[in-house]
Fold ABC-2 family transporter protein.
Amino acid sequence: MISFQRLSAVIYKEWKILFGTSLGFTILLLFMFLENLFFFYGAGPSSFWDRRSSDITFFFQYTSYMLLIFIPTIGMRVWAEEREMGTIELIFTLPLATWEIVLGKYVAFLAFLFIALLSTVMVPITTFVFGRPDFGLILSGYFGIFLLGATNLSIVFFISLFFQTQIASMVFSFFLLFTLYFFGIQKFTDLIGIEQFSSLQSISLQRHVETFLLGILDVYDFYFFISVSGLFLFFTYWKLRERN
């Protein structure tokens, strides 16, 4: 039985680590700065001022790319740091169930992801000031991006268990997420010559988040993200239990 009190203690511990140093604030501010920079002053004619449109679909598209770097950066330390500090064994001597440790850490990082996305709120606010954007599209886009980030985070959680250093965890997680994301882009699959493995496109993260970015709430895509997240969290739990 999972105890909410013990779960809260794990979440609080993770938040103290995230914001106890400048790392958490630095990553958060950098994410907010880059997101707003690309939207308002993007390369070439892609900026908000050049496009003269209240459609922010392209904002969600490059945010999904940003998550490929942002999630491995914040998630690299979840287990690798415990290994570096030699505290991963100590965790299991505490009166905590393995599921409470996994879920506590995961919820703490999900909250961090939520705050990061909330920091981009000036983007939709600006579009409402200068135009009449589709509010449903904005909600759907943010929901899809959050699901994508949550799924990426669950994958990084599992990957981090296999590395002794945070940098190695981050680099491998980035390449894995990059591959899983771009499987859904035809130009990418043509470039690396995997047309014969077209079935792999069904597991592409890009394919499943695309419908949300277009303002479509698809139950199948929602189920995909929830299932993948749950699967990798279970893998993490199973690996930790095996280690314990």
